[in-house]
């Protein structure tokens, strides 16, 4: 039962460094001891299987030990952003685990007796709150059985793309929160691959890569664009980098190609959701071997099942969530018959790779006609003067809603808003096209499309093409 495989990995690591934090090098044996001490403290405080804990901790060995110990005693670990904590504490019947409380837990001695995971298979192991980029944040519930079915801690379960990725995880940068789904999953994968978790002090690319000689890290699409731009203007030595996992939102094929050219064959383009975990992954070798792969997110591993229903993607993954916390109505619309409704529109290319074509809910209703943002964004991004394109809808007295586009200029260019509008016909043609310096980001690092209409952060060149579609 989860996290027994992680406890076993750490015991087997022995004197090998599993976590590096500044000048501290924590071995597998030392980490196991930390986990036992925290687990003893939690049990002494009366934490039992199913009890909720909200860890709000730093990114250091003690924080990692606290997260794993919380799982080891069978608690319900609630993962959310710091700004979500007050609402989450009020709605999830959970208690806060902060640095002060953790310091008290570390006062308990280590009895040296190996831990055995106490989670109940059907009990909730983790509640992960979504970013809210497509609506209100929702708490995705994973059971202990689901987390036990995940492949990260088990090399014999690794799909081919994950096996390729694992080879680059020698020194994996951790930052933000160790309860983050991707941060923890790739961290466990690194440990299983014989690697070391390295605190990014302070976080931020490219400095963290060069400072810590990192071989791997996770990056959102918005921050990847910024890293590529920085490398084009003032290149840093990223020679240690072997794997950069892009998460959070789809990546435009042109920008993906540029990232490969600028950063080298280190980009792993993954697709997944908080509700499902990883669905598919595209490796650098696949992208370099066939440029057509750049328009896809790769092939799903054998353990993942996909179903297209009227163009909308439904999936089954080994470690998927089973419901939203205390939200039966929303759960019924997403978790259905053992499948997860992604609300993403997709198709397969001729090679069996999955291609995303838009979000089922990312629509703008113009003259009662549905306009999907994805195809309009791709049409605009295909223009050589456009580095990034984002489309949002806003109320309009004449059409109900109108399409508004925001574009980031490619280096050295000045996009012509009217020329860009002409790339799209019919109801999808943008009412306005605005050139911005960079897209605003949510706290999760994703493009904040909702903020574009209120805080577009334009450059000195702002254009708007007006007129009927």
What does this structure look like?
- It holds the Pfam family AMP-binding.
- This is AMP-dependent synthetase.
- InterPro entries: AMP-bd_C, AMP-bd_C_sf, AMP-binding_CS, AMP-dep_synth/lig_dom, ANL_N_sf, ATP-dep_AMP-bd_enzyme.
- The strands form 6 sheets. The chain has a 6-stranded mixed sheet with strand order 5-3-4-6-7-16, with helices on both faces. Strands 14, 15, 17, 18 and 19 form a 5-stranded antiparallel sheet that branches. It has a 4-stranded mixed sheet with strand order 2-1-9-8.
- The protein has helices spanning 4-13, 28-44, 61-72, 85-91, 99-105, 144-148, 160-166, 181-192, 207-212, 221-233, 253-263, 284-289, 328-334, 373-381, 417-421, 449-452, and strands spanning 17-21, 24-27, 52-55, 76-79, 94-97, 124-129, 139-143, 171-174, 196-199, 216-220, 243-247, 267-273, 277-282, 305-309, 312-316, 323-324, 335-336, 339-348, 354-359, 363-366, 369-372, 386-396, 400-409, 432-436.
- It has 3 domains: 4-123, 3-Layer(aba) Sandwich (Rossmann fold), CATH 3.40.50.980; 172-359, ANL, N-terminal domain (Rossmann fold), CATH 3.40.50.12780; 363-452, ANL, C-terminal domain (GMP Synthetase, Chain A, domain 3, 2-Layer Sandwich), CATH 3.30.300.
- β8 (171-174), α8 and β9 (196-199) form a beta-alpha-beta unit.
- The protein is 29% helix and 27% strand.
- The N and C termini lie far apart (58 Å).
- With 469 residues, the chain is of the alpha/beta class.
- The protein is globular and about 70 Å long.
- α1 (4-13) crosses α2 and α2 packs across α3.
- The chain is built from 16 helices and 24 strands.
- Residues 458-469 have low confidence and may be disordered.
């Amino acid at each position: 039962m989860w996290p027994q495989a992680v406890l076993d990995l750490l015991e087997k690591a022995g004197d090998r460094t599993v976590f590096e934090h500044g000048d501290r090098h924590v071995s597998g044996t030392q980490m196991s001891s930390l986990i036992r001490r925290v687990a003893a403290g939690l049990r002494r405080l009366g934490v039992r299987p199913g009890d909720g804990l909200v860890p709000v901790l730093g990114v250091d060995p003690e924080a990692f030990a606290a997260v794993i110990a919380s799982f080891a005693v069978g608690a319900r670990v609630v993962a959310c952003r710091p700004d979500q904590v007050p609402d989450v504490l009020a709605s999830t019947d959970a208690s806060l685990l902060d640095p002060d409380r953790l310091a008290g837990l570390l006062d308990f001695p280590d009895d040296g007796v190996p831990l055995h995971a106490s989670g109940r298979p059907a009990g909730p192991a983790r509640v992960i709150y979504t970013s809210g980029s497509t609506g209100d944040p929702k708490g995705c519930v994973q059971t202990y059985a689901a987390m036990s079915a995940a492949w990260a801690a088990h090399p014999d379960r690794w799909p081919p793309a994950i096996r390729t990725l694992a080879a680059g995880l020698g020194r994996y940068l951790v930052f933000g929160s160790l309860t983050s789904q991707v941060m923890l999953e790739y961290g466990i994968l690194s440990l299983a691959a014989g690697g070391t978790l390295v605190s990014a002090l302070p976080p931020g690319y490219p400095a963290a890569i060069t400072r810590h000689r990192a071989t791997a890290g996770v990056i959102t699409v918005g921050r990847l664009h910024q890293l590529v731009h920085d490398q084009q203007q003032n290149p840093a030595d990223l020679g240690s980098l072997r794997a950069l996992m892009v998460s959070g939102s789809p990546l435009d094929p042109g920008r993906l190609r540029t990232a490969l050219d600028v950063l080298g064959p280190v980009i792993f383009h993954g697709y997944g959701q908080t509700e499902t975990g990883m669905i598919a992954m595209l490796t650098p070798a696949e992208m370099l071997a066939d440029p057509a792969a750049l328009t896809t997110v790769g092939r799903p591993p054998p353990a993942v099942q996909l179903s297209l229903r009227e163009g909308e993607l439904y999936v089954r993954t080994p470690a998927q969530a089973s419901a939203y916390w205390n939200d039966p109505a929303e759960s019924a619309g997403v978790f259905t018959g053992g499948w997860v409704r992604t609300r993403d529109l997709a198709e397969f290319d001729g090679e069996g790779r999955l291609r995303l074509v838009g979000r089922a809910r990312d629509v703008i209703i113009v003259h009662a006609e549905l306009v999907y943002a994805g195809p309009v964004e791709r049409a605009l991004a295909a223009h050589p003067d456009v580095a990034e394109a984002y489309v949002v809808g806003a109320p309009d007295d004449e059409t109900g809603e109108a399409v508004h586009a925001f574009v980031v200029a490619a280096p050295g260019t000045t996009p012509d808003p009217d020329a860009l509008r002409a790339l799209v016909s019919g109801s999808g043609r943008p009412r306005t096209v605005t050139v911005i310096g960079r897209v605003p980001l949510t706290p999760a690092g994703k493009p904040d499309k909702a903020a574009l209409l209120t805080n577009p952060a334009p450059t000195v060149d702002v254009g708007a093409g007006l007129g009927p579609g």
